[in-house]
Amino acid sequence: MYKVELLTRDGASIAFDAAPSETLLDAAERANIFLPSSCREGGCGACRVTIVAGETILDAHSVSALSEAERAKGDILLCRAHAQGDLSLSAPFDRASIGFAPIPVRRARIVAMTPAGSSAMRLALKYEDDPQFGSAAQFVAGQFVELEIPGTDARRCYSLANAPNWDGQLEFLVRLQPNGAFSTWLTARAAIGDSLIVHGPMGQFTLDEASARPRIFVAGGTGLAPVLSMLRQMTEFADARPCRLIFGVGRAQELFAQDALAELAASLPQLAITLCVWKPEGSWHEFVGTPAEALAVELGKVDAPPDIYVCGPPALIEAAEAVARAAGVSADRIFAERFTVASVAT
Amino acid sequence: MFCYQCEQTYRSDVESGCASAKGMCGKDAATADLQDILKHVCEGVGQYLRRARALGATDAEADRFILFAFFTTLTNVNFHAAKFVELIQQAAQFRDRAKALYETSARAAGASPETLAGPAAFVPASDMNGLLAQAGDAAVRKDAARVGDDVVGLRALVLYGLKGVCAYAHHARVLGEERDAIYAAIEHALDLLASAPTDITLLLDEALALGHANFLAMEALDAANTGSFGTPGPTSVRVTPVKGKAILVSGHDMKDLHAILEATKDKGINVYTHGELLPAHSYPAFAAYPHLAGNYGGAWQDQQKDFAEFPGAIVMTSNCLIEPHPRYRGRIFTAGPVGWAGVRHISDEDFSIVAQAALALPGFAADAEDKRITIGFGRAAVLSVADKVIEAVKSGDIRHFFMIGGCDGAATGRNYYSDFAEATPDDTVILTLGCGKYRFNMHDFGMVAGLPRLLDMGQCNDAYSALVVATKLAEAFGVGVNELPLSLVVSWFEQKAAAVLLTLLALGVRNVRLGPTLPAFLTPALVDVLVEKFGVLPVGDAKADMAASLARAA
What we know:
The structure holds two protein chains of two kinds.
Chain A: E1 2-7, E2 13-18, H1 24-30, E3 48-53, E4 56-58, H2 68-72, E5 75-77, E6 81-83, E7 87-90, E8 105-115, E9 120-127, E10 144-148, E11 155-159, E12 169-175, H3 181-188, E13 195-202, E14 215-220, H4 224-236, E15 243-249, H5 258-267, E16 271-277, E17 287-288, H6 291-299, E18 307-312, H7 314-326, E19 334-338
Parallel strand pairs in A: 1-7, 14-15, 14-18, 15-16, 16-17, 18-19
Antiparallel strand pairs in A: 1-2, 3-5, 3-7, 4-6, 8-9, 8-13, 9-12, 10-11, 10-13
Chain B: H1 29-54, H2 60-72, H3 81-108, H4 128-133, H5 135-138, H6 144-147, H7 149-174, H8 180-194, H9 200-229, E1 235-238, E2 245-250, H10 254-263, E3 269-273, H11 284-287, E4 292-295, H12 303-309, E5 313-316, H13 326-329, E6 332-335, E7 344-346, H14 352-360, E8 372-375, H15 379-384, H16 386-395, E9 400-406, H17 415-423, E10 428-433, E11 447-448, E12 451-452, E13 454-458, H18 463-477, E14 486-491, H19 495-506, E15 512-515, H20 524-534, E16 537-538, H21 542-553
Parallel strand pairs in B: 2-3, 2-5, 3-4, 5-6, 6-7, 9-10, 9-14, 10-13, 14-15, 15-16
Antiparallel strand pairs in B: 1-8, 11-12
Helix pairs in contact in B: 1-2, 1-3, 1-8, 2-3, 2-7, 7-8, 7-9, 7-19, 8-9, 9-19, 17-21
């Protein structure tokens, strides 16, 4: 067993023991320390920290989560790293981002399933009353949960699309993956009233409430879910700052959530919406191109530097980040959540 | 940003004050700068209001706004930058109104109105970026290089004392008690600060005038509390939870607590007090609510742990708020002057959403062991046994009184107060008030002369009650308050405590031990004035200080 000391961005020291056989993320969780993470499979980069002293061995991971260059300068992924001796780590997150209680595990029942465009499904659940957690749906807008596929141990990550509420309601936008385990269960077997196990909430893709900048939200496909949650939260708080949503899909028939967007347009009067389709067929009168391309156009027009929130497939995140950086937006003003292999693999 | 208004401000050998991107309290630079600008614009309101009042014209709404606006700038109250942009625009509107009032009144009186400069003429930008660019005009230390640290420090003492007066006056105001003399004193101080004063004597006199105004504010609040909720009396309060749904109410605002109790009547929800709302239990109107179940947690600085573990909804009605952790950010609500970006704010006193939240949250699964403390020794309770107390002092059964009160905080030096309390001899009585009591109020001090040795007098503003008791006892003994066998051991943290200190100084109460550290804005020269002119003593070693107190009395 080795000693691990992790120093947070705001200077807090967190200590736990780790065996070489377990990942650092698992080792911390054994000590009831829940470090920021998302896919837990080396795919998203949410758990990236920097080694100050010591050695680790890394399991296989995606280079989009940790590039060769980042790895060379000592960055590791907590979900992939195994201690080879005592470790001193430096983390890019604050102590407040660390959970010191176990992630809730609760039951919820399906209350609605409706098609969302040609390739996604809107899924609504309601938490069952629980002696430990009550019936409330408490999370921070932008967070996700893991849903267990009934009858298996497999879990899939889905962002919540609604705002936190006291009625226990959870809303998801599920992209239907051909042969995807959750997609197959949802389309072939799930029925209203079915009970699922929900792990969470988790995730750090949340609004920087302290910032006063205008916000631009960039969403690709079902990456709209956490953005909807954030916009609904802004509505509830009557947040009057300027904001724009850039929402894109491949083909027009894949568009969904138009009713939700219409409601937001009515309740958040300052919200501007750009709909993008990059493979238009027939008559499409709005933006033609990717959300990243629409972002480039938008950044050419803004007069105050915005905060940019991006959620979607990795290619969209990378393109949007490149566009934003090229327009002079600093890296710490770009908040991104990748929809990664974690939600489709195995 | 530059802010050194509270006790926990950043200190180093070179200079003190929070001056980086974020203060020790968690306030970011933008919020700090906007608070300075709000203060600046309010000074402009005061310039006109004071002159209008001299002509017999007043604007009560503007005065009330100033109370609220200054309350938002107290330590650990409002961290929401966007809220300050809004308040600054409102302040500018009140200033325009006050200007019109003054000019109309002057002309009506046959005089030509003065053209005022300084804050009266400052035009705040309409958006945050514009305002932040103006922050230099409103900074506390903007002319420090020219006027020196003594002047800046004394202005700060006046400003922070003024903030405390405003906070207490606001608490009284929401319960319907207002005093013209308080508004006049506030306008006077604002007008003085607007003139960038450099005269030490003038500033010191203003600080004492605010001390008197704060006595009035505390008297008004005492009248408001007792008028609304009855006279507090000794009450046994449960300090452990009972099974069931739960709401925790923190801060100081008894009106909000009352509204929450009304909103949760017969809903199967237990309401708990936190921190400075503990004294509510001793008022008959609150004791009458069967679902006011008890007091939960420690002093404010423990809230991140206490709130995370509390299984219900939480309401913060005034200071002291610390950054709400993700574990409870979704179930904490702010009210009144309090604010944090991303936390739900209740502005209309409709607490039904809090009840809804409490019902959706798990609540306490089981009763904890029943533990209780006794509180409620306000002036009425203590004076009702005055004969017994006087007799016990004369017979020597009670040797000395220690008034150990004020704010609590996280600093390690605050052990002084628990060390002091626990080391007091068995033939002494401890009077306490404020949240500093949480360091020792679960300790069993036993009895002396048929009285509990620890008498909890209430909230920090119940310093009024303590002063009334001291004055009455002094009358009974035919001596001055300073001749009583009484020592004051005061802990300060924020600006309400600064106002209470000014009251003690204004009333000539000497030999106040003040800690855990002295305010960072007081220069060595100013500390010398407090020590020499007013007999203020910085705290030292608890046992030595106590021995000195007892020796003085002997």
